[in-house]
Specification:
The complex is a heterodimer of chains A (270) and B (339).
Chain A (H helix, E strand, L loop, with lengths): L9 E12 L2 E12 L3 E5 L6 H9 L6 E6 L2 E2 L5 H5 L2 E4 L11 H6 L14 H13 L15 H15 L3 E5 L7 H18 L2 E5 L3 H7 L2 E6 L2 E7 H4 L2 H8 L3 E5 L5 E5 L7
Parallel strand pairs in A: 3-8, 3-9, 6-7, 7-8
Antiparallel strand pairs in A: 1-2, 1-4, 4-5, 9-10, 11-12
Helix pairs in contact in A: 4-5, 5-6
Chain B lengths: L4 H20 L7 H12 L9 H35 L12 H16 L3 H25 L4 H25 L6 H8 L8 H20 L4 H4 L3 H6 L4 H23 L5 H13 L3 H25 L7 H22 L6
Helix pairs in contact in B: 1-3, 1-13, 3-8, 3-11, 3-12, 3-13, 4-5, 4-6, 4-7, 4-11, 5-6, 5-11, 8-11, 12-13, 12-14
The chains are: A alpha/beta (270), B mainly alpha (339).
Chain lengths: 270, 339
Amino acid sequence: MTGSVHAMESLLAVDGIAFGYRNKPVLHDITFTVERGSLCGLLGPNASGKTTLLKCINGVLNPKEGHVRVNGENVGGMTRREMARLMAVVPQQMSLAFSFTALQMVVMGRAARLGALKLPSAHDRDEARAAMKELGVEDLAERQFNELSGGERQLVLLARALFQETPILLLDEPTSHLDFRNQYRIMDVVREMTHAKGLSTLVTLHDPNLAARYCTHLVVLRDGHLHRSGTREAVFERKTLEEVYGMEVFVQQIPGGPSVVLPGRSMEAR
Amino acid sequence: MREHRLTFAVSLLLLAASVALALVLGRYRIEVGALVEILVSTVSGGDVDPSLSGSSLVLWSVRLPRVVAAVMVGAALSVSGAVFQSLFRNPLVSPGILGVTSGASFGATLAFFFAAGSATVVELSAFAWGLIAVTLAYQIGRRSGNTVTSLVLSGVIVSALFTAGISFLKYKADPYQQLPAMVFWTMGSFNSIVWADSIRALSIIIPGLIVLYLFRWWLNPIALGDEDAMTLGIDVRKARMIYIVVGTLIVAASVSSCGAIGWVGLVVPHMARILVGSDHDALIPFTALLGGTFMLVMDTLARSLPGGEIPVGVLTALLGAPFFAYLLVTNEKRGGWQN
């Protein structure tokens, strides 16, 4: 990184992404940017293309049109290794066919930085422990990953992403299988990491209220099209949410807190 | 790796003990004292006492090549099983289940049918057909839901296909010249192993095991699933190629030298996982060690049990199948395998 980097430079740029499976288009001309240090929420109903978009960004899927740029550089021609040094991904929900300890999971965040045919060293393991400690999960290090609770698993995967030391963090529904308290706990950690490390974070969320509470920016998808994008204040308003979720809603400002959205009458019932 | 030092040490001792036992046991009994004497005089370069020349001949020309082949084939089948399990995130697969073994046996039989058993042609054909079999099983499994069960079922399909092919070739074969040799590929045994076979198998299995050992840590992220491994920076497609090609190669070399021996590649990796965990840093070398020991013990039992020699595959199945059933039941209780 050069010293001339501006604090609000757009680090991650999604430019005209389109994707489809065979004859079924999924995404159309999606364009938005995520600034450094901002936490961007990706909202939209089921099947709106959120997860597909995330996979196009991290290169698991190849977009049919458009490209993704990091620091102005097209990632299309990059190797998996180069990509993994730019973006860390926290997958949606994970259970393992074979049991690894939490520490072994976190250490795998180092894969893209290991020399050819090299194994993680004792030093790498110490650093992985340090990453776990930063998120307060160092006690889980020797536990089996499959035996952890949903919230603990997400924290371990977040520690892995932290240990991957990338400027970009992508999360796919990190709260979807968590209880009420753990949803907030995970999002607290995500916000904390984003601020502390100056990350560009993109997170898909089901719950618009979580987005309203934590995200600085929002991107809203509807039927594979970009419906709105911008700052939370600009996007999180009644009309947009009603159009996207197809239902009547109320948006209210909690005194001294974030906005919340509550369902009104069903659109169909009218 | 460090925390398993004791486990490794004990297993090495067990392997050494089973080698010693395998050398002295058998229909031609070699006393332990004689074994030591022969070894000492060979190492010091002197001549063996004439009274021991019979024992010496049995030791060097019959027992040792067989011991070497059993250890190597056991290690090859087991490591290949561990690699396939992690690669496909599937605890239920092995070279046998995936059809590699029957594909390779078919290839060997085919070579025998048309090329009258030139050893190189047999090996090449075993490798090529083993590769075709695993590719077919993988592709069918992927297109039929890509689950733990679909891969197993497609392996069953592929195995059935190649087993039928073997039966057809047997039916067409010359019953006096070709048939006896063909039966050999379908019923694994070490009893006709000579040095030429051992060395031939060794020269493929050892480099193969070294490659898999060098690439062992990549299997950790790959065992998490293709997408996750990709985002961690692994070129999954390239890695999968390496593992499948090398894993198949060492199985083909095993099948070419001693025929198809079942269950080892399925059961030994699980024993190793229980003992040292799933981290491939320790798992791959330990699986090799355990697989070699297991196969050697089975082979020694097979030829020294009263009532004459039985095919070693009978014993591995007799032990392997119940052990696997036990694993299946206990893992189901823990919520394990059918995710």
